[in-house]
Amino acid sequence: MIIFRSLFSVLFILLTANTFSQTIELAEDKVKWSFSIEQDGDEATIVAQIRIVEHWHINAVKLPKGSFGFPTSLDVKKGPQFSLLGGVIEPKPIQIHDDLADEDLAFHEGSFQLKRKIKVLTEKDFEVRGTFSFQTCDEFKCLPDMSVPFKLKVKGAIASADETVDTTASAGSETTVDSDDTDSKTESKSDVKEQKSERRSLWTTFIISFLSGLLALFTPCVFPMVPMTVSFFTRQSKSKAQAIRNSLIFGISIILIYIILGTAVTAIFGEEALNNMSTDPIFNLVFFFILIIFAISFLGAFEIRLPSKWVNKADQKADRGGLIGIFFMALALALVSFSCTGPIVGTLIVEAARQGGITPIIGMFGFSLALAIPFGLFAAFPAWLSTLPKSGGWLNSVKVVLGFLELALAFKFLSNADMTWDSHLLERELFLAVWIAIFTVLTLNLFGKIKMPHDSPVENLSVGRVLLGTTSLLFVIYMIPGMWGAPLQIISAFPPPLEYSESPLGVGGGGAVSGEVGPEGTVRGPQNLWVFHDYDKALAYAKEVNKPLFVDFTGINCVNCRKMEQKVWGEDGIIESLQNDVVIVSLHVDERKDLPKKEQGEFKVGGRKMSVRTTGDKWKLLQIKRYNILAQPYYVMQDPNGKDLSNGSADFEHTSDPIDFKKWLDAGISQFSKNK
Q: Other CB atoms closer than 10 Å to residue 457's CB: what's the count?
């Protein structure tokens, strides 16, 4: 599952990259913009003049409650030269109710202005920077959201005191959406990024779940049901059209059953609880044992069955006929096939729970859609049934392969718990040894050298077995050098990082000097770099050596953080800068070490209270209060006084490319050198 998941994610990104860039060009064709400053003494107004072509519109800044749209924002990067006065000022939007989607809409069309007021705090002229973010829609569709940067020159307060510039208001009454550092009612740039990330995550979940549903289709409990069910509908229906209709209803019923399951998981645990559980070591430990049970079941030790009463009642209801009967036939299929689909569904829900939100619902929709489609297709084209391979031992082989993949995935959860507790029981070498053993046994099984309880005799190796077995063998060979410190970039996000191992420097030390001691308060981090884990100590050391501070908001169990550290930090030109030109502080927002009592408390952030009890909570609060974002990895360059450098900040979305990351890093170092 892990290998497939990584490959599918990469494939999805590659396939959508060009389409996305073409869509942005379309968005630029629909919306035109310009930015200007209107100033009167020490007060200035940032004006965004927006012009939209006919039949298109962009959403309002303040959307009605329950709206699924992407709100427009006019974000201004804060600076010491000015302070923000209120929030975004927008004309009164057009408000309608979409009957089809049962949703209230608020949007702007034609020409109009958005404004942000600032108070100038300096006598010197300066530059203000910001981002205009929006989504373009017409009556039928919406294009992907787009962010446009801008920068404007503002005169110092005294220099402009005698100059008055008239403020031209747009037509119609205007409303102001209040906004400040910690209690924002508008969508900030950070919210834009989080929504983008969430949408990508949901698409990835859907694709993985759909492919998992296709795998479940080829298990002994489900595959034989396809011709049986379609033949039943064909015999019982008076016409081909009725057979197709009944099969389609049957497929829709399957989808509804699994969506209800996903909805129930979300409702029982709640979105916030699911998000919080993802980094909880107890949660990870519980699901380690659950996946171990699923894996053992798939390997043939026993079958996980639901109570026979449930199956019998569903069968009885299915005999009633009509729509209700078809629905209960689908329910009976779900219950009967649970011994094969249960472990897959359970694994998907576990992964969805780690992401939280509506992910369990999306996951169950993707899984059930893959199961439902074959019934509709084979009902429409019954002749296709003759092309299906006959049931046999190959179906059990599918279960066995899935069992080994479940077993490998289980140890990722155990590793998460181990790293959170910092117990060092499952360090990198042992984790890789476990995976090497698992995939070695899988290879031998595929080549017929090791048999599971329900395996059929393997007299001749099929092409599929040879290809899959060879792939598994290659994966084993690839992982072996990792035992001695090789980075293993293909799977770098899954094993513990190099610094969390018995030999952090690897064989030969990876260029590090044995016994070398770093600055006081530092430990060996990614790429053998010396890193601080305390912001105050790192800032004090940056002052001492007069170097810029590289602030890394990260997570112990952050997959994208490990990818960045292994694939980007070690690149030529980057590793040298991180090693020699900056002071690194890595702040783990999921670290569960308790803070001293005097540092614990309740803090108001974003209109709600945030409880700070652990070190991770402390760094999480720092990131939210200062940058209004909670996404990892998130990188910031600061001078030794803790002031952000002009290269700004960059998160994983913008810096996953080594070239872009190097440009950003060099810009911060260059700016620091100029300010010396």
A: 7
On the question of pLDDT at 606 being above 80, the answer is no
Burial class (CB in 10 A: 0-12, 13-18, 19+), 120: buried
The predicted structure's pLDDT at residue 321: 55
How far is residue 530 from each of residues 348, 424, 572, 661, 666, measured CA to CA in Å? Answer: 38, 20, 18, 20, 19
Q: How many CB atoms lie within 10 A of CB 51?
A: 12
Q: What is the pTM of this model?
A: 0.49
Dihedral over Cα of 75, 80, 81, 84: its sign: positive
Pairing state between β 126-134 and 73-76? antiparallel
Distance CA 72, CA 114 (A): 10
pLDDT of residue 511: 47
Helices (H), 552-657: 559-567, 575-580, 615-627, 652-655
pLDDT digits (tens, 9 = 90+) for 484-528: 888 787 887 788 887 788 876 666 554 444 556 788 888 888 888
pLDDT tens digit sequence for 270-284 = 554 555 555 678 877
Convert the pLDDT of each residue in 466-485 to its tens digit: 998 999 999 999 999 988 88
Contacting residues for 634 by C-beta, under 8 A, at least 6 apart: 552, 553, 623, 627, 649, 650, 651, 652
Least Cα distance to 47 among 122, 101, 118, 100 occurs for 118
Nearest of 461, 466, 495, 499 to residue 478 by alpha carbon:
495
Mean pLDDT over all residues of the chain? 74
Strand order of the β-sheet with 136-137 is: 94-98, 103-108, 57-59, 136-137
Assigned fold of 31-187: Immunoglobulin-like (2.60.40)
CATH homologous superfamily for the domain 519-675: Glutaredoxin (3.40.30.10)
Question: Rounded to whole angstroms, how far apart are CA atoms 44 and 117?
Answer: 6
Residue 395 Rama label (left phi>0; alpha psi -120 to 50; beta): alpha
Q: Which of 507, 362, 338, 355 is nearest to 428 (CA)?
A: 507
Numbered ranges of CATH 2.60.40.1250 in the chain:
31-187
Question: Where does CATH 3.40.30.10 sit in the chain?
Answer: 519-675
300 phi-psi bin (left φ>0, alpha ψ -120 to 50, beta other):
left
Residue 505 pLDDT: 61
